[in-house]
Amino acid sequence: MTAPHPLDDAPLSTFHKKLALFASGGPFLDGYVLSIIGVALVQISPDFGLSSAQEGLVGASALVGILLGAFAGGWLTDKFGRQVLFTIDLALIIGCSIAQAFVGNVWWLIGLRLLIGMAVGADYPIATSLLAEFSPRRWRGPLLGAFVAMWFVGAVAAYFVGEALMHVDGGWRWMLASAAVPAIIIVLARIGTPESPRWLMKKERVDEANAVLQKVFGPGVSVDDLPEEVHENIRVSALLRSGYGKRMAFISIFWTCSIVPLFAVYAFGPKILGALGLTGTLANYGSAFITLMFLVGCLVGLALVNRMGRRPLIIHSFAWAGLALLLLGIFTNASAWLVLALFAAYAVTIGGTQILQWIYPNELFPTEVRGSAVGLASSLSRIGAAIGTYLVPVSLSHLGTAWTMIVGAIVTFVGAGVSILWAPETRGLTLGECASIGAPSPEPTAKAA
Q1: Which of 161, 193, 225 is the last residue of a domain?
Q2: Does residue 267 share a domain with residue 165?
Q3: How many CA atoms lie within 13 A of 395 on its CB side?
């Protein structure tokens, strides 16, 4: 029997829990920033006399910023380290959020939200790379997967804040500025977070890496306990060639297929539910219920990712979620409760693919390019999400609700097919084994992930 590894088989410590909580501040702010604008636009539109096109630009500007910031943040974190950027990116969110309260026209607002989105997008590869490189393999999957759940927590918080400020004169300025409050709390909590010893080793800063390892894991632990990653000089170009190109294609396609229907359902839930027969208050409560079910789906995925493994989870998640959307397309005239039940079924079953958006990219690439890989995959998926979200109202108008749901089902089934062909199993492997081309399969008795 193999002796426990001092890092990969370490128990879950207070340090790991704090790091996971502080790192999840990025998706919390993502959910908050993208959700609060929907409430704020109710007041912004009449104040600035916005056209529908301008409303769309205000709503989409942060999403475009995330697209741009994710890859830039990934490249920067691979080049300059995880720790130094772990707080700088949030400082930009704080400054721009406060500045939104003083804008005098829509173009300044669009510009500031673009910058906020860039900072939020940059935080994803920075925070997930740092967390992945510290996490024991048994807990790596659940800790990374929990990122998605925090997105919905942020969204719920935004709706509560928005509702509280809705009847305040000029309340939209306070709504948008309010994002600075959680950002300040998160940046203060992140101060003092150590640099990744794996990244320090790649930069040949051995003494610093040893100091971090001894501080986190105790005396006697050193860089000699990081043997699994070969010291080869891998560049970002490796993402587009050899086995890493295939891995990048898999991650980008499955991520896109996962979030295109989800973003559409989430953004246009009331409109879709109304077209399917749920109107008025029932549609609003139905949308809130579906949001809760998305969170439940993420929690279910977290509970299953170690038990089922990555590959079975992603295949089953796509397959059952696609079936739920297909049934919504077929039974458009069903009772309101059946429609709501099918939407809930989709929200819960798609949770497995949601948590794997952050697990797979961090596991399948080596330290040198891990941040760039996460950033590139996130950016590519946001292109599809933006296009898909934009096309949903067009599809509802020209194709109808039934075919819109069927198209969503087809996109979801494509994700299932790609996962059947390319999804690897990384449960029970060390981070170095996961990132190696042709990595060995985990032992059948492995309990870790």
Answers
A1: 193
A2: no
A3: 21
Q: What is the pLDDT of residue 277?
A: 60
Residue 183: what residue type?
A
Reduce the DSSP state of residue 441 to 3 states and report it.
Answer: coil
Q: Which structure tokens are listed for 218?
A: 């105790």
Distance between CA 368 and CA 15 in Å, rounded?
Answer: 24
Name the band, by pLDDT with cuts 50, 70 and 90, for residue 313. Answer: very high
- The amino acid at residue 103 is V
Q: Which residues of 394-427 are buried (b: 16+ CB within 10 A; e: fewer)?
A: ebbeeeebbebbbbbbebbbbbbbbbeeebbebb
Burial letters 298-325, b for 16+ CB under 10 A, else e: bbbbbebbbebbbbbbbbbbbbbbbbbb
Distances (CA, A) of 231 to 9, 78, 153, 380, 438: 22, 15, 39, 29, 17
Q: How confident is the model over 72-118, as pLDDT tens digits?
A: 887 778 788 777 777 788 888 999 999 999 998 999 999 999 999 88
Buried b (16+ CB within 10 A) or exposed e, 357-385: bbbbbbbbbbbbbbbbbbbbbbbbbbebb
- Closest by CA position to 79, among listed 372, 423, 278: 372
Q: Give tens-digit pLDDT for 425-439.
A: 988 887 777 877 654
Domain-located, residue 209: no
Q: What is the DSSP letter of 250?
A: H
**Cβ neighbourhood burial of 134 (10 Å; 0-12, 13-18, 19+):** buried
User: Does residue 211 sit within a domain?
Assistant: no
Q: For residues 401 and 218, what is the distance between their CA atoms, to the nearest angstrom?
A: 58
Provide the residue type at 73 as one letter: G
Question: Does residue 447 carry a pLDDT above 70?
Answer: no
Single out the residue in 135, 166, 193 at which a domain terminates. Answer: 193
What range defines the domain where residue 325 resides? 237-449
Instruction: Give this prediction's pTM.
Output: 0.74
